[in-house]
Amino acid sequence: MPSTVSELAGRRAQVGVVTVFFAHGLLFASWTAHIPVVKTHIGMDDGMLGIALLGVPAGSLLAVAVSSVVIPRLGSRRLVQLALVGSCLAGPFVGLTGSVWALFGALLVWGLFQGLLDIAMTTQAVAVEKVRDRPIMNGMQASWSIGAFVGAATGTAGVALGTSLTTQLIIIGVPALVVGLWLSTRMLSDVDPASESTADPGQKVQRQLSPVMLILGGIAFATLLLEGAVADWSSVYLRESLDGGPVAAGLGYTSFALAMVIVRLFGNRLIARFPVHVLLPILTGVAAIVFASSLLIGTVPAAIVGFFILGLGCGTVVPTVFSAAGRLHGTHPGFAVTVVSGIGWIGIFCGPPLIGLLSHATSLPAALWLIPILTALIAVGCRYVTALRRG
């Protein structure tokens, strides 16, 4: 990013990125409370639902390939605009499906646009972070979490009021699209951020995958995988496995999203005060223990507490990983962020179908043990993040 970009331009761009992060979280989470309703409407068991939910990771895989070609040519700002339009238009069709494969197809298209939007807005956030010369990624992810919290609460209210998924996504999608497109015009122009004119002498090396990049991608993948699992299966777990009511079913993800908002609002201060290799393993380790305990207890209150602590423990992992990707030595930030965020975005949509398939083979409470196992592995992997920050 050219050094001539002013601080004012950076602030204006930050407002636009924060808004898009919020809109993305809002759209993503607003349908989670409707999943049991869609499941019942189509007549799916857990295995069939798991297969249908595979549509989104399939779409997100396409998003990684498309974004790696489109971002250097159009820039992250233009891709944000295109993907936001696609997300808002594709979402309502999910609620109109009447079969497993129709739901799969609708989720594939929606997953493609959501994946493109995630990668583009993260790339733009890294560009703004560099211009402002201060950490902002936790704030961006906090905005996403606030949007997810509002979306989850909206979905819960919509189910309680009998509002259809399609109607709900239209009601929230139209204003999100209008405001998001308006403020996206403030974003920084970063067309061809990996061009030769801005590259260092070792440009070919900078475009290659590195072990450190794959480690970061793996941590993001695991964290977002469990986040996706919570988003799509917490309501089913609370309602069907623990016999909670329709309102209680929505409180699992709502509490999880609220916890992520809280920890991300203070995330930059925490990271500045405590070593990452100490902070993140402690947070994720405690989250793994508490969530495992909630599964053993097997009550609605314990589950809600477990989801809340899980959100607190994992909330700062992804922002830290994305920021670290943008600072990797010897690798262009645009390339690194596209790869790491792309791998992570695949994870958020692999979680739901994986839990569904495991649930079909065993039971949903048994399948959810994948979450504390992954959280414990994340605690171990987070030690690599500090080496990147200090490297």
From TrEMBL:
Bilayer-crossing regions: 12-31, 51-71, 78-95, 101-121, 142-163, 169-188, 209-226, 246-266, 278-297, 303-322, 334-355, 367-386
Protein's UniProt name: MFS transporter
Keyword Repressor appears in the UniProt entry: no
PANTHER family per UniProt: BYPASS OF STOP CODON PROTEIN 6 (PTHR23514), INNER MEMBRANE PROTEIN YBJJ (PTHR23514:SF13)
Pfam families, per the entry: MFS_1 (PF07690)
Gene Ontology CC terms, in alphabetical order: membrane
Gene3D superfamilies: MFS general substrate transporter like domains
GO molecular-function terms, A-Z: transmembrane transporter activity
Primary residence: membrane
Membrane topology: Multi-pass membrane protein
Record keyword Membrane present: yes
This protein's UniProt keywords: Membrane, Transmembrane, Transmembrane helix
Subcellular localization, as worded in the UniProt entry: Membrane
